[in-house]
Structure formats: C-alpha cells, structure tokens
Amino acid sequence: MKKVGLYFGTFNPIHIGHLIIANHMVEFSDLDEVWFVITPQSPFKTKKSLVDNQHRYQMVLEATEAYDHLKPSTIEFNLPQPNYTVTTLAYLSEKYPSGYDFSLIMGEDNLKGFHKWKNYEVILENYSIHVYPRISEGKIEHQFDGHPKITIVDDAPIMEISSTFIRQKHKEGKNIKPLLPLEVWKYIDEMNFYRK
User: Fold this and answer.
1) CA–CA distance, 68 with 118 (Å, rounded to integer)
2) Alpha-carbon Rg of the chain, whole angstroms?
C-alpha cells in the first residue's frame, strides 16, 4: 500500500517553501509520496494574478522533476467547480480503489479552520491528516486536539514564504530568484509572468 500525501494549492507560483515541506513529509513521516494537487482557476472567479492552469502545472512539473517522490497532479482540473476537498478525495479513492492510501497535508493555520470545511467529518472519518507548523492566530478546535487521524509533524520547518509575496515583489522589480526552484524562476522569467 503506497501512502500518498495530497498537498493542495494554487502554486501560483510553486516556491522553495512548498518543496521543503513536501520533501520533509516524504523523508520524515510515514508518507511514500507527495502529490501537489493544483487547484484550477475557478470559472466563477477570474483572478488576474492567477496564471493559467497548464502553466502552473508546468511550473510544478519543472520543480518536482528532480524528486522521485514528489509529483504534480491535475486531478482537480476536470472536476466540477467549485472544488471541494471532500469531492476530490472521493474521486481519487474511486480512481485508485486499491494500492493507495491517501492523506491530506495541511498547515496548522488550515487545521484551525478545518471545522468550517464542507463535510470535514467525512474527511476525518476516511482519511488521515498530516499537519505542518505555521505561525498563525487562533487555536485548534478541541475535537481535533489529539485526534487519532491527525498527525502533527512538528519537526517540519516553519516556512513563511508566500506566493503572494513573490508575485508582489517580482512586480516591484525585486530579485525573488532565491525563493524559487531555478527551473521555475527560468519559466517565470521566460513567460514574463507576474510583472504586470
């Protein structure tokens, strides 16, 4: 049984913080692989700053090519909008009925708001959750504290890099190259992303 951690995000763009967290999960938890599940552009919300699905997939592909246990996933691109994690998990479990054990990867900030997610009880009943530390306000709801399905990977590094920061500073003409995998930096530069 292959244990796969699902790391959801827009990855707009993917940066070294994402890779450090994903690699830590593979190396220092019970996960065999991490799949970067790229959240598609919602047809209901056209955010100018959100680069096209295929370009974001390409950046994740370029970023993960050197890592055998990290993979990009376009699974949500063909699912109904808006995307709900519970729907994606159900679809993956149907698509891979045997041989895979799926888990969620989320930051501690997301766990603090997990009780507001659609059908969070269903997720918790059927899937485990790996949580990495984040500096954030608020507290974890008591029903999640010490829950057997929730693993706090508290030795994971705290990454305070954000894609929003990268986009803003790139637009301002700052050098954000050290925050990105080299292949991703080259792709962004070549495609002239986030400059306008």
Assistant:
1) 33
2) 17
pLDDT, tens digit, for every residue of 147-165? 999 999 989 999 999 999 9
Q: How deeply is 196 buried, as exposed, middle or buried, from its count of CB atoms within 10 A (0-12, 13-18, 19+)?
A: exposed
DSSP type of residue 52: -
- Alpha-carbon distance 171 to 78, whole Å? 31
Q: Tokens standing for 53?
A: 């699905």
The pTM for the full model equals 0.94
Question: Tokens 């009780």 correspond to what residue?
Answer: 115
If phi > 0 it is left, if psi is from -120 to 50 it is alpha, else beta; for residue 138 that is left
Residue in the block written with tokens 């080299």: 182
Read off the pLDDT of residues 92-115 as tens digits, 9 standing for 90 and up. 999 998 999 999 999 999 999 999
The Cα–Cα gap between 72 and 61 comes to 6
CA angle 10, 188, 164 (to 5 degrees): 45
